[in-house]
Design brief:
Length: 182
């Protein structure tokens, strides 16, 4: 299969759907964390867990798509930037799985089952254990902040390519019909 200069419509859709889901889930996580215990906080925690499981499922779909569909050829850029981009993408994919799984494990250890969309009970990964829950809470936080940091670097790099380098790199993942990248 010959490489193209744009990602497929499916890859673009999965990219932006995951981006929106991750941003929304991160925002809700920050907001709910500071709330006093209330029915609203419990509702937001459930929504956050549902979104995390959905992100996990979308990540499996995205990884399967990526493994079975060739991405566009690397954009022309210095070798160190290509290596950094590949490392960032590997880290992002790893964190797409690690963040929701750590949250799910934390919820299990804390004794709060995950019931996706309030309908499908999911298995607990770990036994209820208060000390383990505290450890996993910290792991989830560190992984989430790592994901946020790498996403910010990813966005900054894309904007640098678009506004400074003006190399059309951002067009590869832009939704909508193909246009001249210059």
């Amino acid at each position: 299969m010959a490489p193209t200069h744009r990602y497929s419509t499916t890859a673009i859709g999965l990219h932006w759907l995951l981006a929106l889901a991750i941003f929304g889930t991160f925002a809700v996580g920050i907001y709910m964390h500071e709330l006093p215990m209330s029915p609203t906080k419990l509702k937001l925690y459930n929504w956050h867990k549902w979104a995390g499981v959905t992100i996990l499922a979308l990540s499996f779909i995205r990884l399967a798509w990526r493994l079975t569909h060739r991405p566009p050829a690397d954009a022309p850029m210095p070798a160190w930037q290509q290596k950094a981009a590949h490392a960032a993408h590997l880290a992002l994919y790893g964190l797409f799985f690690a963040v929701p799984l750590s949250g799910w494990s934390y919820s299990s250890a804390a004794g709060f089952p995950v019931v996706w969309l309030g309908v499908l009970p999911l298995p607990d990964f770990v036994p209820v254990d208060r000390d383990l829950a505290e450890l996993l809470k910290g792991v989830h936080k560190v992984l989430t902040l790592s994901l946020a940091a790498i996403v910010l670097v990813h966005v900054a790099a894309a904007l640098k390519h678009h506004f400074i380098d003006k190399d059309g790199l951002l067009q590869r993942m832009r939704p909508g019909p193909e246009s001249n990248p210059r």
